Amino acid sequence: MNLDLLKQKMDQAHYIYDDTLAVTLSVALQLGRPLLIEGAAGVGKTEVAKVMAQALDRELVRLQCYEGLDESKALYEWNYQKQLLSIQVNRESLDRDQLTKSLFSDEYLLERPLLQSIRSDKPVVLLIDEIDKADEEFEAFLLELLSEMQVTIPEVGTIRAKTIPFVVLTSNRARPLSEALRRRCAYLYIQYPDLDKELAILRAKLPHVDDRLAGQVAVAVQKLRASEAILKKPSIAETLDWVAALDALGIRELTPDALRQTAGFVLKNSEDLAVLDTLDTSSDHNCGCSHDHGCGGHCHG
Amino acid sequence: MAEPGVYLEKLSLFARMLRLEGLTVGPQETADASQVLITLGLEDRAQVKAALRTVFAKSQEEQAAFDRVFDGFFVSEEAMKRQAQEQQQREAQLAEGRRQAEEDLRFRGEPMDIREDLREVYAAMPESERERLRQLMDRYKGNIDRSPELYGSFIHSVFTRALLEQQMLLEDAGSGGMETDPELGLLFRDIGEFKDTEIPRAIAIIQSIARQINGELSAKRQQTGHTGQLDFRRTIRRGLETGGSLHRLVYKKKRHRRRKLVLLCDVSGSMMQFSEFALRFIQSLNQVSESSQVFLFSEDLFEADAFSLQNMDLFRNYVRESGLYGRGTDLGTALAKLCVRRPAVLGPATTLLILSDTKTIDLPRAAQALLEAKRQAGRVLWLNPIPESKWPYVRSIQTMAALCQMIPCSTLRDLAAACRRLVT
């Protein structure tokens, strides 16, 4: 897929992107490399995989990483109950070797996301989310899959990919990833969106919301993110939730009262809520639309 | 599109330059880059940059290094001509400066005994500075003729000092212009030079690095070996998964005792901003120590309470209210008071961390007090915001560095590296 076509597809998915992101995705696709995306929590790393699935018209297979994740949860597991039942049923069978062999066949194999993604008849988008949360052993285990597009199951042998998935790995940089893993991936770093991009996202995702309100929220969120007193910076998803909540309540302007009533949608811990009163998040003098007068992106005067 | 051979050669040269910059560029990356270039062509510079960055740079830090090399390597024709012209001008100026140095750096017709590198500094320094030195020589002309030996050494010391100062300024100017990325640029800039508008960004960087260091340490500690003692509870519990057979043994992990940390922060005038940043950094590292005490000093010593360190405004107010702000620096008194505090602050399990530029009144007394503090504490580390290149010019730094381990941390990057050393 060439760059222009990819951009067109992302436009159709109402995804707001910049040229760097589009070129990076296009290069990763062209080279068939996994894409490693790093950035703070809530900048839209996971969203890239979702949009790519939509743009490429592929199924999204997701593997959420966590401490202690191992092959049985990520790659495959034998269906022990079914194997035991089979042994019980076929106890009288004379051909023991055949029985043993049959116990390690596809029939008893439970596919987990990694195996599912390479054995799928149609190519998929494989999202390996928050790889920094997984142990280093698991990271090493992934190397075979990412570089050779094959996995080895001791009882079965090496399974080569039927179709090549587009792999997206995300990391919050909670721990540094190994050099070996990085070398196998194309790399993208995503930062929080600036005011214009945030406003564009709000308009694309919530087109029915008043422009003035969207502008005020975008400015407020930018200020919250810039404030050192706020411990957990608001993510893009939280900004969208906040605007949706304000809209659902029929609020057309982000007044201090409205802010206090709905702050729980954007600030998620008590310390942050406590400092909210001390912050000036008003957007009366700067709506962020480069018009400098709180117009929410349009000059209403 | 140009012939592939033309830019593949350039690409290989570019890959070599990236390696020199510290990036790991193997044949696979170069092959990928050439494949990308064959498809994209070289027409759109921004597109080529983004594509090559995806292939070559595998972390945020590598991206910054990549941008530097790319911007220097793939320059437009106009930029190249402009650079060549500027280079020519610079060389002509330098040649003129050297000729001038030959003429000016003479004493009673003989060449002065001045180091070759300082002669080069004289050639490169602004004309106004050279004129100042010439005027000085003229002013003392009569005295020189009367007493050449006495005034000879005076003139020599004035010239040497002026040239050393200029050398420092030139080194500073050279190290400043490297970073183009505003975010990463902050990592390499002198902390004392941050503008107010840059502080929130700098704090965000600190928080992100601190998170990363915490993650690294926690991962490292999880990996470190066991004590050799069996953890029966976990072994039995894990055995339940396999029908009660204990074939996967779990051992008790080693307990890591963290040290007690005592921070002594200079908050006098120029040190205020650095101390704020360093304190914030160290406080965000929850793996550093199991307990810490923070002391602030200028001419006197105060213990800071944890509440006052929560954010910058509180910290500044606290320092102002304590009466330490705007005063001189007396490290000797601060250390002496710290050593005699009861209950004892320093002990064998304590790491004393001093944040100061070493500029203090009564240096011998301060050195004496530092020796006593070193005797009481298990470990003494000194974080110095003055760049290491300037240390040879500052006597107090030489004295203190001889007595304890001193780490340069004029930038956030140095500070992060120092904190890594502190916790490992």
Straight-line N-to-C gap of chain B: 53 Å
CATH architecture of the largest domain in chain A: 3-Layer(aba) Sandwich
Spatially, the strands of the biggest sheet of chain A line up as 2-5-8-1-9
CATH topology of the largest domain in chain B: Rossmann fold
CA-based shape of chain A:
elongated
- Please compute the radius of gyration of chain A using only Cα atoms: 24 Å
Question: Class of the largest domain in chain A in CATH?
Answer: Alpha Beta
Q: Into how many domains do the coordinates of chain B divide?
A: 4
Number of helices of chain B: 18
| Helix content percent band of chain B | 55-70%
- Strand % of chain A is 5-15%
**Roughly how many Å is the radius of gyration of chain B?**
29 Å
- Indicate the CATH architecture of the largest domain in chain B: 3-Layer(aba) Sandwich
Count the E strands of chain A: 9
Secondary-structure element pattern of chain A, one letter each: HHEHEHEHHEHEHEEEHEHHHHH
Description:
In chain A, a hairpin with a 3-residue loop joins β6 (150-153) and β7 (157-160). Chain A contains 14 helices and nine strands. Residues 284-301 of chain A have low confidence and may be disordered. Chain A has three domains: 3-69 and 117-189, 3-Layer(aba) Sandwich (Rossmann fold); 76-111, no CATH class; 195-276. Chain A has helices at residues 3-12, 19-31, 45-56, 71-74, 80-89, 96-103, 113-119, 136-148, 179-183, 195-205, 211-226, 236-248, 256-262, 270-276, and strands at 35-38, 60-64, 76-78, 109-111, 125-129, 150-153, 157-160, 166-171, 186-189. With 424 residues, chain B is of the alpha/beta class. In chain B, 59% of the residues lie in helices and 11% in strands. Chain B contains 18 helices and ten strands. Chain B has a six-stranded mixed beta sheet, with helices on both faces. A two-stranded antiparallel ribbon of chain B has the order 1-2. A two-stranded antiparallel ribbon of chain B has the order 3-4. In chain B, α11 runs parallel beside α13, α11 runs parallel beside α18 (412-423) and α15 (331-340) packs parallel to α16 (363-376). The A-B interface holds A 3, 19-20, 23-24, 26-28, 30-31, 33, 36, 38, 40, 132, 136, 173-176, 179, 182-183, 185-189, 191, 226-229 and B 24, 26, 28-29, 32, 35-36, 39-40, 46-47, 50-51, 53-55, 57-60, 62-63, 183, 199-201, 203-204, 208, 211-212, 215-216, 218-219, 223, 311-312.
